[in-house]
Amino acid sequence: MMNGALGAMVVESDPYMPHPEECSADSTLSVVVVGASGDLARKKIFPALFALFYEGMLVENFQIFGYARSKMDDEAFRDTIVETLTCRIDAGEDCGKKMDTFLSRCFYQQGQYDDATDFQRLDARLSVMEGSLCSNRMFYLSIPPKVFISAAANAADQCASRTGWNRCVVEKPFGHDSASSLELSQALGKHLQEDQIYRIDHYLGKELIENLTVLRFSNLIFEPLWSRKYIRNVQVIFSEDYGTEGRGGYFDEYGIIRDVIQNHLLQIVALFAMEPPVSLEAEDIRNEKVKVLRSMKPVEMEDVILGQYTKRVSKAHTYPGYLDDDTVPQNSITPTFAAVAMFINNARWDGVPFLLKAGKALNKRGAEIRVQFRHVPGHLYRSKFGADPDAATNELVIRIQPDEAMYLKINSKVPGLGLRIENSRLDLPFHEERDRELPDAYERLLLDVVNGDKRLFIRSDELEAAWDLFTPVLHKIEELQAQPELYPYGSRGPVGAHYLGAKYNVRWGDLSYSGNGSSKS
Ligand SMILES: NC(=O)C1=CN([C@@H]2O[C@H](COP(=O)(O)OP(=O)(O)OC[C@H]3O[C@@H](n4cnc5c(N)ncnc54)[C@H](OP(=O)(O)O)[C@@H]3O)[C@@H](O)[C@H]2O)C=CC1
Ligand SMILES: O=C1O[C@H](COP(=O)(O)O)[C@@H](O)[C@H](O)[C@H]1O
């Protein structure tokens, strides 16, 4: 177990690992990215580490090790990661030099994930570099699930720091259903204390998701409205305008519910709907999230719509269907789109539909939360809005990406003579008037790991509760071999999603159109 037998600085009875401050000022940080040759490592993890270094967020003494089976030396490794590093912050200022310094601290160790000796070699190299300094080690497991356990075991048993903290970041998928997730947790628990496990859900690191709790709990005007009394429905919508492209092999084993809805979207719902936490401490927030998840009704088959995208040929381009991906089995019925209706059986949310929708290869890329408020009772201005009461509904939109923004749709008078009323926006854009780009989710989350802040990571009981909500319906879908509704690449997705909305009197906010055909979403 990490820092168990080996942990000279840890008292055995203390269930928590020491925090960085427990190493003196002269500490060193080693980050080991296991699966360093992979897509996620190159696209997200190394760029985020570089951004943290660039912003001066890493300690003075640090080293980054890539670990994977691919044959490479340090130089070849640096050549592969440099391609994805960008000087996105203050591009002009000294970036090239900083990049060179960063790269000079990056090293590569080739090894198998299940070979103890290979990890001992890594440990030996780390120890040489760390010298006599107190050393903290972070292991980022950026590998496919089937090698998770062996890699975690070897990192913990062969490669743990003997002087400082050891933390292990685990990427989703955290299992396939309740049983496999429990198995995974138990297997990890043989080598790591829960306190050392950082289950990452990168949606929790997105700027607007961090802002969701600030919006709710630091403004007087929202919290009083935040319940069934004023909120008619809540929609959490994720769409991508590209298909599985290259990840079909992984995706086909999971499908969109496991890939996006059971984790990213459900986490958003939990944060959105939780009661005010006692404090901003990680455990207080996670206690509230788990309570909401446990109050939710497991998803029922009749509240699920499934879809799968098909080829679309336009004049300029042929967009491949899901089944055209070579890594996807022929005749696969794995859903690339799903819409589900969920309910929270507690006093605050009883009867309010939470509609979640996620799809690949749709007409646009975006992620947003839409909160539709109830109609104004006895609406004095009813006649000004025509027959459609939804045209006058207040709606709060939290756009997670792209172009992060929050806006509230309100009704106001069109200036001038007469009394025309329009539905317009109170807008809080996040890009305009700000001189820097927003940090990527992985930057925030990696910094949190370094700081030992677990607020934005999933606790094991949250994970269990999340799987309990989806496991029965996922099994049912498999048992029934439920056929997804086909939709063309680049379309708005299956029409079934509209029927699901209609069943609960919900009109999807992202697809609303005003009478004259222009988008008002
Ligand atoms: N890519 C993404 O955008 C996202 C990924 N994730 C998760 O992050 C983790 C890493 O993802 P990603 O980088 O895409 O994964 P990859 O498929 O790119 O795999 C990462 C590395 O693992 C090794 N590997 C691949 N297949 C096997 C295998 N069958 N047996 C042993 N080793 C293997 C390879 O390294 P080598 O051969 O050199 O050992 C590969 O470079 C996964 O758990 C994924 O689900 C989560 C969210 C998004
Ligand atoms: O976890 C995942 O997320 C990505 C979408 O992440 P984003 O930050 O680019 O919105 C998704 O494409 C992938 O299928 C899923 O595994």
UniProtKB/TrEMBL annotation:
Domain Glucose-6-phosphate dehydrogenase NAD-binding residue range list: 32-211
UniProt xrefs under Pfam families: G6PD_C (PF02781), G6PD_N (PF00479)
Catalytic activity, as annotated: D-glucose 6-phosphate + NADP(+) = 6-phospho-D-glucono-1,5-lactone + NADPH + H(+)
Gene Ontology biological process terms from the UniProt entry: glucose metabolic process; pentose-phosphate shunt, oxidative branch
Pathways per UniProt: Carbohydrate degradation; pentose phosphate pathway; D-ribulose 5-phosphate from D-glucose 6-phosphate (oxidative stage): step 1/3
Entry EC no(s): 1.1.1.49
Top-tier EC class: oxidoreductase
Keywords assigned: Carbohydrate metabolism, Glucose metabolism, NADP, Oxidoreductase
PROSITE patterns in the cross-refs: G6P_DEHYDROGENASE (PS00069)
InterPro entries in UniProt: G6P_DH, G6P_DH_AS, G6P_DH_C, G6P_DH_NAD-bd, NAD(P)-bd_dom_sf
One of the record's GO molecular function terms: NADP binding
Domain Glucose-6-phosphate dehydrogenase C-terminal, residue spans: 214-508
Function: Catalyzes the rate-limiting step of the oxidative pentose-phosphate pathway, which represents a route for the dissimilation of carbohydrates besides glycolysis.
NCBIfam families registered for this protein in UniProt: zwf (TIGR00871)
Family the entry assigns: Belongs to the glucose-6-phosphate dehydrogenase family.
HAMAP family, A to Z: G6PD
Entry protein name: Glucose-6-phosphate 1-dehydrogenase
Lineage, highest ranks first: Eukaryota, Viridiplantae, Chlorophyta, core chlorophytes, Ulvophyceae
